[in-house]
Task: inverse folding
């Protein structure tokens, strides 16, 4: 079965640069979530979209923005990168029915040097 | 969303023994509680979930119990195997958002 696709798998950037992470949800899933996971930490919710509109907002810095496009894929844009932004970034998708499970992509490992 | 507390943070068991991980929460509105397994550098994978209208759910060696009155739920793994070694996260919904506990690193010693 098709899973959540994230690209790139790995990304190395320097401080103050920008990065764009992409996510393609499972077909027919209408909700996309972004999570940030630092080393040895639990995934921290950043932001979610339902039917291309922002749904919930978590601990997403102002330097980050995200959107969901007409084909339901989503992009996380990160500017003025800091060393502390180095982490695994997961996208997950689900159906917006009550209590539908989240399915995670394989993540993008961002390293800021 | 509100926090969910998870204990223990690390758990070491002998192969064949049982493992229990517990989570507590305070948001009375939460009604969905999934458990995810995450191997090093890989994505979290759903292993079992429970909804608030059910007190217990089993899937082979894995079971989850929910006490909605006391606001805690637990993951039980029986007959543990080395491949069960991973980090386990409990989760709960807060609206359409899912928040996670701090994780439990389970080590199953052969």
Result:
């Amino acid at each position: 079965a098709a899973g959540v696709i994230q690209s790139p798998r790995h990304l190395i950037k320097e401080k103050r640069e920008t990065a764009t992470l992409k996510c393609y949800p499972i077909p027919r899933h209408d909700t996309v979530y972004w999570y940030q996971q630092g080393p040895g930490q639990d995934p921290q919710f950043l932001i979610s979209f339902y039917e291309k509109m922002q749904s919930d907002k978590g601990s997403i810095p102002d330097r980050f923005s995200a959107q969901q496009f007409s084909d339901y894929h989503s992009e996380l844009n990160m500017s003025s990168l800091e060393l502390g932004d180095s982490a695994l970034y997961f996208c997950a998708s689900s159906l917006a029915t009550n209590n539908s499970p989240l399915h995670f992509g394989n993540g993008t490992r961002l390293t800021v040097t | 969303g509100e926090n969910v507390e998870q204990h223990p943070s690390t758990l070491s068991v002998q192969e064949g023994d049982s493992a229990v991980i517990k989570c507590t929460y305070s948001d009375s509105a939460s009604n969905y509680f999934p458990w995810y397994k995450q191997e090093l550098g890989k994505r979290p994978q759903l292993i079992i979930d429970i909804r608030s209208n059910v007190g217990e759910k089993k899937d082979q060696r894995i079971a989850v119990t929910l006490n909605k009155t006391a606001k805690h739920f637990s993951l039980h793994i029986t007959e543990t195997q080395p491949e069960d070694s991973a980090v386990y996260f409990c989760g709960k919904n807060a609206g359409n958002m899912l928040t996670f506990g701090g994780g439990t690193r389970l080590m199953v010693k052969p």
About this structure: Chain B has a mean pLDDT of 93. Chain B touches chain A at residues 1, 31-32, 34, 36, 41-46, 49, 51, 89, 93, 95-103 (CB under 8 Å).
